[in-house]
Design brief:
Blueprint lengths: L2 E7 L1 H4 L4 E4 L23 E10 L9 E9 L1
Antiparallel strand pairs: 1-2, 1-3, 3-4
């Protein structure tokens, strides 16, 4: 609990929130989770690059998970 997900890149174009608190059961090392992003795809086909950062609620301000993703829509 208390983890935060930040999304950087073309978030406004895709109608995504730039960050939100991740509300779920407590996590331990090795746990796997699925996160579903809900936004709005533009009317025309295309793609956008975003970066996902996962931050812990502890004192360390650095992301402990980071992934660049290319989203495509048709």
């Amino acid at each position: 609990m208390g983890h935060r997900l930040e999304v950087r890149g073309e978030v406004q174009r895709l109608g995504l929130a730039a960050s939100w608190d991740f509300q779920a059961l407590p996590m331990v090392f090795g746990d796997r989770r699925e996160i579903e992003l809900r936004g709005t795809a533009p009317a025309q086909p295309g793609e956008a690059k975003i970066e996902l950062l996962f931050l812990a609620p502890f004192r360390n301000p650095h992301p402990f998970l980071r992934q660049e993703v290319t989203l495509q829509w048709r």
